[in-house]
Structure formats: C-alpha cells, structure tokens
Amino acid sequence: MTMTVTTDDGMAIEYQIYGRGPLTLLFLHGWGNAASAWDDFITRRLNLSGLRCIAASYRGHGGSSGCGSGYTHERFARDMFAVVDAVGAKRFVMVGFSMAAKFGRYMAYQEPRRVLGQVLIAPPGPEKFNMPREAFLPWLAAAPYPERFRPILVSFTKMPIREDLLDLYCRNVSLASRAGLEGTIDMFYESIENEVKNTVVPTLIIAGEGDPLFHREYIKKNVLPITPGARVVFLPCGHEIPFEMPNETGSLVEAFLAGLHCGTIVPPAE
Fold first, then answer.
1. What is the per-residue pLDDT for 264?
2. What residue segments make up the domains of the chain, in order of their start?
3. Cβ partners under 8 Å of residue 179, min gap 6
4. Pick from 143, 125, 141: which is nearest to 189 by CA?
5. Distances (CA, A) of 64 to 8, 79, 139
6. pLDDT tens readout for residues 117-149
7. Please, how many CA atoms are within 13 Å of residue 207, restricted to the half-sphere of its CB?
8. 174-230 tens-digit pLDDT
9. What string of DSSP letters covers 134-162?
C-alpha cells in the first residue's frame, strides 16, 4: 500500500506499508533510489509475521515532492519522523542502506527513546566524507539515463544482481530530481560526529568485504569507534548488499530483531 504524508514545510513524502504486525521497521534507501527499491527484499526475504515494514522516498525522490531545499540531517529526520508518526509508530527499528545508514542515525540522536534499534547496511561513517566532490560528477551526469548509470552501479558490486532489480534501481535514479541528488550529496559532507558519538542504541552493521567505498578497514576505523556497542558482520560482496546477498541480509536483520525481542539486545529504557 502506497501512501503520502505532508511534512510541516508542506512536502508530500511517499511511503509504502508491508504487513500489520506490532513491530515497525523503517527502511531508508540509498542514493537516488526510492521506496520501491525495498519491495523485493521486504516481501521475499523477510518473514512479515509480527512486522510492519515502512519504506519511504525522500523529498525529491520517487513519488515524494520535488524540492530544492531541506537537504540536511535535521530536516531528513523530521521528514522520516513524519512518516512513522503517520502510521502511529511510537517506537521503531531503523534500517538504513548506504548514505541512509548515516542520515538515519540522526533520528536516534533527535529522539533516542523512539529508536529501538538500527541496522546500518554498507554505512559511511558520521564524519565529513573525504572523497572529492568531483567524483560524484559522473554519477550526476549519468543519472537521467538508466543505460548510462547501470555500469556505474555495477562497478560497486562483486556479486550479480537480478536484471529487474538493476532496471528498477536505474529507473528510480533517472526519476529523482537534480536537487534531490545534489542535496543528498551535500549531506555526505556534513559531519554529525558530535551528535551521534554518545547516542547509544542497539546497532547491527552489515558491510561488504569487497565494498570499494566502505570496506573492512574503513568500517573499523570510521564507523565502529563512534557506534557504541555495535555488532558488525562482513559479507563476501560489494556495496549493494541488500541486492547482491538479499537472503543473507534478510537473515541477519531477522536475527537482530529476534535479539531485540528476546532481550539479548537491550534498547534504551523509556
């Protein structure tokens, strides 16, 4: 079911709902993508019994309103809290992929008692990104053209991805607004180290051994030291982990949720 919620600054944010269980998961997509990117993973790789999964498209992405402003961590968090508020979720688990594994951490900083746990997939650290901005220019130039963006996407993989999922990813990127693509790149260069360094929330990190961006050494140096109590699993794949190894990723997410449910992973007290 696809719905929208209007934010306090008048933007319509698209979100999709899967399942009706008492435990809410909020799924946040990677650069240029949209809520629909999670459809196959949620419906085929997770047991939805007891779960309500919400996948949202950011402003300027998917079916959400296009906007030339609002690309900050604070605004991003407010947009996503508008989504979980719309479905009546007082507490939830955040699942963030790639850039969203950084952006989504700001939610626990803003309202730590609402975030039961967080799953950070192929995560950048909370620091200012150290890759030259010029490296993103080929991405931006290719984004409107799925056939040109596909080889850029594939260059970040080590395992094959289904053709229909590649097509969907590239099509979503081609439909994202230029402001949304550039605005989220700007967010990469905004440090949130001071905000999240003392935020304690149960955390699972899933990283790719062959990720050219956020590999084992990077995770150990930039993510783990500033993520108190996090557990990390390295999978034999590249950056596009939920699409390269969806079954393994789904199993890890479910094991993390089971730990929360059984109390072996303890969320912050109310």
1. 56
2. 2-261
3. 60, 66, 67, 68, 69, 71
4. 125
5. 14, 11, 21
6. 999 999 999 999 999 999 999 999 999 999 999
7. 25
8. 999 999 999 999 999 999 999 999 899 999 999 999 999 999 999 999 999 999 889
9. GGGHHHHHHTT-HHHHHHHHHTT-SS---
How confident is the model over 13-48, as pLDDT tens digits? 999 999 999 999 999 999 999 999 999 999 999 999
Task: For residue 139, give the amino acid letter.
Answer: W
2-261 folds as Rossmann fold (3.40.50)
Q: Provide the pLDDT for residue 270.
A: 41
Query: In angstroms, rounded to a whole number, what is the distance separating the alpha carbons of residues 123 and 170?
Result: 21
Give the number of residues written for the chain: 270
Q: What is the Cα–Cα distance from 61 to 45, expressed in whole angstroms?
A: 24
Which residue from 235, 162, 187 is spatially nearest to 30, judged by alpha carbons?
A: 187
For residue 63, which of 87, 86, 29, 94 has the smallest C-alpha distance?
29
Calpha distance 93→101 (Å, rounded): 12
- Identify residue 191 by its one-letter amino acid code: S
Between CA 170 and CA 150 the distance in angstroms is 6
pLDDT for 67 equals: 84
